[in-house]
Amino acid sequence: AELFESELFGYEKGAFTGAIRMKPGKFEAAGEGTIFLDEIGLVPFHLQSKLLNVLQERSFERVGGNEPIAMKARVIAATNANLEQCVENGTFRRDLYYRLNVYPIIMPSLRERKEDIPLLAEHFALRAAGEMGKVPVTFTEAALEILKNHTWPGNIRELENCIERLTIIASGTAITPERLASC
Q: What is the pTM assigned to this prediction?
């Protein structure tokens, strides 16, 4: 919460102890591109009004500044929290919810789209191998069935971490059900 404003809006030299130079924030750095606000549901309630103001006014000021800076970026926000429920619970501002909810995209959890798991596993295997300079793992049909039947409480990040772990310990091999025990 302490870094929220300075990270998103930037700050002027001398705005606080340690601010030895001006630093642009994420909104400024995004320019006319896109800024992605992940886990928007975790933004502390007292800071949500500042975010709402930027979205409504399309401008902001750096911390310690008084010059308005135009916000030209498109904003995409994501969360795994149910924001409607957060609004009802009083932990998320209703006006901010409506400002963000212009075009909602509901992405079902991984356990609700098991047919995607083989393709995602292959993608993560290729990416992990490329990043690590290793040979990608492959999957036996039996291993894919186990992956598809897992509940994935950590959703896609859990699958990605599992595949990275397999790449580290079993580079270039066909993953069998026995190998999946390391996930």
A: 0.74
